[in-house]
Amino acid sequence: MEEVETFEPCSDEHVKEILALDASAHSDWSAISAVTDEEGNTIEVFRQRMDTGLDKLKALVTTVHITADVVHEVLYNIETRVNWDHGGKDMQVVEKIDDELDVIYFWAKAPPTFTNREFLQSRLTRTLDDGTRVIIYRSVKHDKFPEKPKKFVRAYTKLSGYVIKPNPSGEGCRVTFLSQNDIKASIPSMDTGLDKLKALVTTVHITADVVHEVLYNIETRVNWDHGGKDMQVVEKIDDELDVIYFWAKAPPTFTNREFLQSRLTRTLDDGTRVIIYRSVKHDKFPEKPKKFVRAYTKLSGYVIKPNPSGEGCRVTFLSQNDIKASIPSWVVNLLASFFMKKWLNTLRDACNNQLKENAKAKE
């Protein structure tokens, strides 16, 4: 079922929701990675458990001003394909069965921190009566190429291939690439839309009140958090609730994203501090489609919980956004993991600076 975007402000209901998610993140979710800095502060990234089964069938269609026979030759001939298709490494014919059928092997480089994937496929080519050329791939097993679990993850291809159909005009052809694979294990799919809820958890040797001040005070946050550009309070509604705006720089070739969020802060009876964000609409900040893509925040925020020992606190950052359009989710996850330790160090430094400022204010 497609996720329905809602834009009501943060409320008590969302406080309960984020606290429940904070609790479940440590027991029910999948840990992605963890680091510890030189001072012993730890940070972990969790993701709601994802189905790693077969992807939905995807199709990529293009029209080219080249004959179907030439396109087929370029795609099918491995001896020449290795010179231009750098996505498939060590591509080779394992066994030629007949003029239409063979078995091929290649491996593909995965994003950093993930294991490379290998493919062993039966490949069938055929020319139909109307001149359409097809190349079809399906996973097989072969004695010459057993799996290499220490080096690769063996992906599974249910059905992939090309349909190369001559145009009725006789000029050029239409090429459809179909792909349905299970890439196994933990590489997120490239589907866009609402991300799975993620949690980033860190333990710091600083009080919950100081961490809350550092994360909540926009006037000082802009000095250390360079991820949010032009961060500002759009409207202050009461002591707990306001509306904020910022934009974030996207990876090269992608459009920058902007966020307009309702922000709620609250202190619970046990000293836990929460900051919650949800997308809203506001007359002062209409969307700027020529300059930004407006991202949608279903629920994000911080749960800052004092340690029972009285020393320091545990900070959980929860995030669930639809960044819209064409940035693949694996790019977002990869960048988040890459900057994880940097974020921890920056937060720690900002908290230490806040402690110094607080000490000066008392003098």
Describe the structure.
One of its GO terms (molecular function) is lipid binding. Pfam families: START (PF01852). InterPro entries: START-like_dom_sf, START_lipid-bd_dom, START_lipid_transfer. There is one protein chain. This protein folds into two domains: 171 residues, Alpha-D-Glucose-1,6-Bisphosphate, Chain A, domain 4 (2-Layer Sandwich); 164 residues, START domain (Alpha-D-Glucose-1,6-Bisphosphate, Chain A, domain 4). Helices cover 20% and strands 38% of the residues. The protein has seven helices and 20 strands. Strands 1, 2, 11, 12, 13, 14, 15, 16, 18 and 19 form a ten-stranded mixed β-sheet that branches. Strands 3, 4, 5, 6, 7, 8, 9 and 10 form an eight-stranded mixed β-sheet that branches. A two-stranded antiparallel sheet has the order 17-20. α4 packs across α7. The longest helix has 23 residues. The radius of gyration is 26 Å and the shape is elongated.
Short synopsis of the structure:
Helix content is 20%, strand content 38%. The chain is α+β, with helices and mostly antiparallel strands and 363 residues long.
Q: Can you identify the CATH superfamily of the largest domain?
A: START domain
Find the count of extended strands (DSSP E, 2+ residues): 20
Strand content: 35-45%
Low-confidence stretches: 1-5, 54-59, 187-192
Sheet having the most strands: 10 strands, mixed
CATH fold-level label of the largest domain? Alpha-D-Glucose-1,6-Bisphosphate, Chain A, domain 4
Whole-angstrom Rg: 26 Å
Spatial shape: elongated
CA-to-CA gap between the ends?
A: 58 Å
Protein name: START domain containing protein
GO molecular function, one term: lipid binding
Domain START: 15-188, 196-356
InterPro entries: START-like_dom_sf, START_lipid-bd_dom, START_lipid_transfer
